[in-house]
Write a structure and sequence with these properties.
heterodimer, A: about 200 residues, alpha+beta, two-stranded antiparallel ribbon, 4 helices, disordered C terminus, B: about 350 residues, mainly alpha, two-stranded antiparallel sheet, 13 helices, 2 strands
Amino acid sequence: MKKYFRDIFKSLWTILIGMKVTLGHLFVPAVTIQYPDTKLKLPERARNRLYVNMDDCIGCLQCKMACPVDCIDIETIKSIPTDDLGTTSTGQKKKLWVTKFTIDNAKCCYCGLCTYPCPTECIKMTEVYEFSEFDRNNLIYNFSTLMPDEVSSIKAKTLEYEKEQAAKKASTATQVKSPSSQTTQPKGEQSAEKKI
Amino acid sequence: MELFLRNIIDNDFFVYTLMAIVPLLWILPYALFVIWLERKVSAHMQDRLGPMRTGGWHGWLQTIADMLKLLQKEDIIPVAADKKLFNLAPYIMFAGSYAVFAAIPFSSAYIGSDMNIGIFYIIAVSSLAVVAILMAGWASNNKWSLFGAMRSAAQIVSYEIPTALAILAVVMIAGTLSLQEINHQQVGWFWNWYIFKKFPFVFIAFIIYFIASLAEVNRTPFDIPEAESELVAGYITEYSGMKFAMFMLAEFVNMFAVSAIAATLFLGGWNSPFGNFMDGPMWGAFWFLSKGMFFVFIQMWLRWTLPRLRVDQLMYVSWKVLTPWAFVCVLAIGLWIML
């Protein structure tokens, strides 16, 4: 009997306590952020969309090697000694034409592993995270600064140079008549073809 | 108001039609406003914001947009459903909840029908909702709907007893069943209201009435008939479009109806709390509606405070707590009047 009355009193009393709490929260400022209008500040080392500063890229392929999902695709062509590709901001001399540099953001897992090996720190994570697209192909970002006609002219030039070099080598080989040079010759040609 | 209308239009049919439409003029904007308010109150009690986009200022157009959306929705009737009952249920539900307003005095100048059995009529007619709920649950041919309907029937039947007894306590003091008459007896300052009479028995009766009325309109903590987390939506699971909107409207109308009855019986209805200050037919409507809205707000407040009761707890509260206490109140008030 005593428990019955105590239960009734307790339930009414605790309801009042609960109501006090909820009424208090009615006047507490909401924690919701109106997303497109106001945005949370990102953490200092947040990993979002990748960006490549092509002025600094030396085409070393280290980011491509590091990528666990193979979303970075790079093609390079060796420059000939007469070409001047300039230097990076770190003072390194650029030796390769980067004819293709694409990052497929649909595949990218935002691990940031590509940013660590980069010797010139040209590939980095930005603060952009709103880049949804209707077509998946639009997520393949192209960073190469070379136009298609430029690429073909570079290719032609390099091919010519390689041929010249091969011819030179062949002439020296015939002069020396060493057997080892004949074995190296086709290898060099193969690698040139691969690059093209 | 009836006399005034009669002076303008000398036709019984038009006069009564106009009289019947008046509560609707309050109910429809009220429902739109309260659904928005409920969402805002629930959001802010949980430190959220609720609707913010529609209409600019704090999403005030949200319910109007929702209503337009519901109007355009496809009206789906399940193949296995009992078509006739399924279509009939929402209209009975709304008719039942709207019929209550016939006897509720909105102001000293307006009452739909000034019957001498007003409050008895309200108790009788509000039970129509059970019929509609059972109808909807059974006709849907869905186990969750039927569960909800059965629970609702059990709940409303058991909570009607403490409700009726708590009302009886007031009726015994007033000596009348007419709501307009009960209002006239509470004229003056707020200490003339019945809630402060025969202290504390009428106050206990008021608490009992308020708790039991929460259960009658299926509000949390007594919302087991439409418990979202266990029964999808109870008896309204299979409804869509306008029929769902009718159920929703009836639910919010019921909320106001029980609040209005609580305001009329215990808080002086359309009487101003300050004697003659701000008194009169128009002010009366203002006081009546604000008292009603105050109770509607308390219902929301409780909804976001308390968790849902279990079925056995629900029955315990009704039969072992509310009903005996209501009897005690009735008995004590009866003795007090006799002495």
